[in-house]
Design a protein that fits this description.
The complex is a heterodimer of chains A (about 290) and B (about 80). By secondary structure, chain A is of the alpha/beta class. In chain A, about 40% of the residues lie in helices and about 15% in strands. Chain A contains ten helices and eight strands. In chain A, strand 5, helix 5 and strand 6 form a beta-alpha-beta unit. The chains are: A alpha/beta (about 290), B mainly alpha (about 80). At the A-B interface, helix 6 and helix 9 of A face helix 1 and helix 2 of B.
Chain lengths: ~290, ~80
Amino acid sequence: MTAVATGEQLSARYLGVPGERVFTLSFQPQQAARGQVLYLPPFAEEMNRCRALAAAQARQFAAAGYGCTLMDYRGTGDSDGVFEAVSLQDWLADVGLVLDDIAQRYSQPPLLWGIRSGCLLGACTAGAANASSTVTNSTAASAIGTRIAGLLMLQPVVSGRRFVRQLVRQRIAAAVERGAGETSSEDIQQRWQAGESVEIGGYQPSARLMLELEQMELTDFNLAGLPLRWLEHLGEGQDEPGLAVQRMLDTLREGGAQVELHGFAGPAIWQLNERAATPELLDVLGALYRP
Amino acid sequence: MDTLALTRRILKTNLQLEEAAHFDRDVALLGALPEFNSLTITSILAAIEDETGCEIHDDEISGEIFESVGSLADFIDEKLA
């Protein structure tokens, strides 16, 4: 384990104005970095389940010569704001803020590394950057004008609509288990439409956040020309992903993205409540981003 | 697609149960396995949707689907049809 001895440079920083500050933790290699990576966490409990993996892979990136920045969206982790009050637009603005900072510091277009729903935020950001780069010499080089080196998507959520439906189902199943009154998806939808926040799995996301998340579909973003590495969990004895993933990859290729698929084995950590080591996944990532 | 193999794989991943890889159709699930609770049910339904690209609606969800490996495999078959 020489990587521990050589180490990486760690810096924790807050970006933005007080009350809206975004926490970032940057892992930089000792020597000049070959490239930068920005990690986009998944949603709610999945975010917590993936924290250890994100830190381990950030170290592995640094050991391979890449700088990697971890961030907490507002209302999560060490960033300002409360979860109940944030919107998806806030989070996309946070991503833009961190991208600007990376561009200023390192002058390297970063790779956007998402896990689960973080991939939707990555694709949305990359899609917006793609759209603005086709406008001649766009000097509106705010967050959106920042160039993106590519996307690394780990077990991506492809449909916000399906993802939200699955989150809602958790609430329905839990209610059934408690013997509580019937709640239906339609009922929850109506409450969101009325602006009411509904508790889901111990979290209280705003109606706006959930309605925005529902509108996010991976196929809606212009990823033409972007390198896209898709990492999909494969169960034992499975050598290729399910039909839905294969169809999605075809659609992305037709849209002009340069798609590579890589499978990984081991525990599906984003859905496990007990922490599990993920050597298989770290090996796949280690092989893709070699020193 | 071999639906029984898909069912075993989904069970093994979501129950974190090695034996699930060799489950026969008549193995009882809901009420028989301590690992089988509401959270497992939601994660299994999500896995079926993600693997097959189908949509499962509230009114399709019942305890009967989860009675046994066979009933779950039949449900997946129906969703694939």
